[in-house]
Design a protein that fits this description.
The structure is a homodimer of 414-residue chains. In chain A, strands 3, 4, 5, 6, 7, 8, 15, 16 and 17 form a nine-stranded mixed β-sheet that branches. A four-stranded antiparallel β-sheet of chain A has the order 11-13-9-14, covered by helices on one side. Chain A has a two-stranded antiparallel ribbon with strand order 1-2. The model of chain A has no long low-confidence stretch (mean pLDDT 95). Chain A is elongated, with a radius of gyration of 23 Å. By secondary structure, chain A is of the alpha+beta class.
Amino acid sequence: MPFDAAARINHDRFRATFEALTKSGATPGGLNRPCLSKAHLEARSDFCDLARHGGFDVSVDGAGNHSAILRCARDNAPTLLLGSHLDSVPNGGRYDGTLGIAAAFETLQSITESDLTPDVHLEVIDFTDEEGTWVSLMGSRAATGQLTKRDLDNPRGHLAEFDEALATANLTREGILGAARTDEDFVAYLEVHIEQGTRLSDAGLDIGVVSGMVGIRMYLVTFRGRADHAGTSSMDDRLDAAQGAAAFCLAVRRTVMERFPDCRANVGRMTVTPGAFNIVPESVMLYLEHRSENRTRALKLEEALRSEALNAADAFGLSVEIEFLEEVHPAQMDDSICRAVESSADSLSLAHCRLPSLAGHDAQSMAQICPAGLLFVPSVGGFSHSSREFTEWSDCINGANTLLRTVVTLLSAT
Amino acid sequence: MPFDAAARINHDRFRATFEALTKSGATPGGLNRPCLSKAHLEARSDFCDLARHGGFDVSVDGAGNHSAILRCARDNAPTLLLGSHLDSVPNGGRYDGTLGIAAAFETLQSITESDLTPDVHLEVIDFTDEEGTWVSLMGSRAATGQLTKRDLDNPRGHLAEFDEALATANLTREGILGAARTDEDFVAYLEVHIEQGTRLSDAGLDIGVVSGMVGIRMYLVTFRGRADHAGTSSMDDRLDAAQGAAAFCLAVRRTVMERFPDCRANVGRMTVTPGAFNIVPESVMLYLEHRSENRTRALKLEEALRSEALNAADAFGLSVEIEFLEEVHPAQMDDSICRAVESSADSLSLAHCRLPSLAGHDAQSMAQICPAGLLFVPSVGGFSHSSREFTEWSDCINGANTLLRTVVTLLSAT
């Protein structure tokens, strides 16, 4: 039987790879690997060790994206790219990103051992800062030429801390902007990821074939009042910024649930200044994001939230400033890639469906410069960005096998 | 004319002292001198320089309280203590605490230059951490033997940071607990402070003679839900800790205004964990304090706020934990000292009234071991714990002159 019909990953090696890549930054049940943290850089070093041990070329670009490459004989051949990310949100789960890297790496190793002689370069890429500790999808947006100087001048952390973190990884903002690979030829980009929701498990399905990703818009919302002594100033006279922030935080959830059930929103942080027991809050800064599949709806929601912020400020005599930070545009996955994933799943007798992704992924950056595909495996309970995140190992194997079959299919077609 | 009838401070020297003591940690219009910060330690060093230059003994006790002492001939004579504090809240004002030290120091200098030969020791004391960066009224509670090991084991900052800060000032927790001066004999404790409210200016008065201080109770209130991905988890399914925290924050203000108009409360900080745009908040910790002149009312308000916290948690499927941190008991000032302040103000043709203090002060610690008196000067606009804090210099002079007269009166009586 030729390899392409019977292709299966090596279970033990896949497991060992996954364990090796989830060692650094391990927490009880999860991972704590914010981008460019010590634990994140250690995980990348583990990735390089695995790649060298597997006999692959190791390459690091100006954005810090790490690659393990299996080169074909033809120098100017196009590249079939498989990827995901090794960074995590603070106190995140083990599977988000790392499963995709492990599955891609196992696919590379399985191809190496097969009787196939690819006529394209095969590359596994670990993108920098998918989770946006500093800049959302930074590595993949850099690789696809979608990052601007403004994006890098306004990281979520303070700029000085960002530059310091870059320096520890021998990176610079100039280097990141120079990392675009838009002049290269890519066959396709493929990624395996956990669903981070319960649609697959609710429907009893094995594989989700992602049709496209929601867009995300992010803001800093700052309510400003006046600092006062919390004992001597009367309750009536206060301009308490925390009151406006609290009212707005409740209004965000209410607005989405009542008027925008097709969208989602989150207030993920509130920073109170000066922040002492005995001082009436002078200002509160909120981290706000919302997501929609449809950009028109996203802009309507933004309008509604701006109006809620003004109402909350007015109610407590405050001012409010809404700073739009960044946008991740909705993106479509490639239909022919989707069909290749579906036929691969069929050949493995895995049940699948198409579905949109409610989270952002590096595949949506890559979709701007080549055909891209993303496949989901089920998340138990739908928990995500949490140590409760979990995927059955059998489902991880299904995802890796489907990826391998899809790669074999694409290689046969080139 | 004998000194006691004409006693007046030296305006130029008083101003120079005030300027010298507000140099370190200066911000536009205010001071940033959290206890044991570099700026705070520098201010204390400036205080020592002034004291040595004035020819006074300098002494630092185990709690870091700094004193300038004018000793009388009699070794075992009692001490007449004048004091306040040089620390500030983050980004606080110039007058809170520092005015009291400057007025006390000027009083000491004026006495030195007079024809009086006090038969008691005169001591100006700068208490550590009046503002409670670590532990409320730490220095004065230590000096009066009211501090427990538990208080020091639970500072508001993390214990490790507290120990580190103490080390930079050559202090230890053991040393603080050993700083009690309960075996000493004190004639009285006197303090000048800004009102931090508008009662004096509203009534057109020059001096407030404080009858007593409100009690303060402080808590950490933690709402706990579940961290989830802010895109993939549905709005319905979330256990968003920020929603409970926001609802509670609004309820605190409403409860006090509607049902406890004689009390005051503040939510001064909200810390969201993990604190990222794309993670539904797992937990939010709030800093809560409330103040009442009457302890029974304080306990009734606590009961009402506990019930509001449970309601807020229930409404969003969260749990809530309320940790009682510390209490500052209400305290009475000494009536004979109040009368001495009033006659001093009368002799200077200053209009005065008695009034309770809505803020805590070191005088309330001192009231536990000796007759204590506190006098207020007007605050323009009532702003406090803010760089907007301001007191007319003529009112500062009135406060210092009233303090000097009161000291002279007490010295004549001993």
